[in-house]
What does this fold into?
Amino acid sequence: MSALDIVVGRQPIFDHALSVMGYELLFRPVGPLTVKGSKVDEDQMTTDVLFGSINIGIERLVGDKKLFCNASRGLLLGEIPIVLPAERTVIEVEERALKDEEAVAGCRRVRDEGYGIALDKISWSSDVDHLLELVSIVKIDLQVTSRSAIPELVDRCHQRNITLIAEKVATLDELMMCEKLGFDYFQGYLLALPRPIHGRALDIGHLARLQMSARLVDSECSMADLEEIVRTDPAMVHQLLHLAGMGAAGGMRREVRSIREALVILGWRRLQSWVSLLLIADRGRGWQEGVTNTLIRARMCELLAAEFDPCIADQAFAVGMISNFDVLLGIPLDAILESLPLADELRSALVDDKSPLGSLVADVADYLLGRPERAMRSGLNEDTFSSNSLKALLWAVELSSVLDVARHS
It folds into this structure.
């Protein structure tokens, strides 16, 4: 397992007062691309945007604004799960992608799942009218649409109460023209250039992906079974926390207190979509020592918590694992915590050692880093630390061995 550099572009969309109403998420390449003929694989671009969005975090990418995501054919046909929150996501579909009934049916399915649909790059003709029944937004590209054709397009959309976005607005004259014609929103270089948002992600082990996929098709599988898989993979925990924060009604950020709670918040259907995306975006990179150390820390926190307060054992495991994310990702813990939807008690335990949970995690970190003389906040003695560190080590080493064998096979 290794840390991956990720990047997602974003470009704001403005209202008449030039306040941001949403952001379009844009593909920005990192590493080698799959090329079909002379074109980059559009399904790969869509998958990379979704993968990057999960890991960077929707809160960091767009805050509380709407997000617009371009759809490849694979997404419309259900081959690529969307995973983004439907209540605040608009799927952009180019007219050329809707040339057959299969794609149109896929567009209708996406709309029925609660996503907004924006028709993009239209070349107006009488046979496009049936597509307007599917969409709530039309984007008109000012750089490919003749000025003489724009007024009629606007009128026909207004007759259907369709929201209009002028895109690729490059000059003040174009902006003023669109305002007079009755466009609702505006996007383009005149207002703001696309901006890359960088982040880092942990690669999820292939075995964990396959195990989750297998369990999610079993109707008798419990959340406890899924938790046992997720807790073995820090990368899965990292992504799960991001997704759970998007999972509440209305797309509002929700606080998470444990891995089990994150699974419940996400729900069965979105878990299936998430794991499907992970299988598509399989980027196996190998194992690193920091992951074993992270598992040891998390397991040791859980074992010690169970001795004096079993009620916080689940929280202790999660906090113990998150406390080492800075080592795995190579970025400060403060920056990581900004994007994770953690409950106050978990966040507090990660930044100070005053609470019972915070003192426990701090003591475990000191003990494992070879500073046992400092591990005195929680009141546990050295024998207790020693015996539980051995149990945690044996658990993590056995788990790491299984995962490493699976990776090489």
Q: What stands out?
A: Residues 153 and 282 are 42 Å apart (CA to CA). The chain has a mean pLDDT of 84.
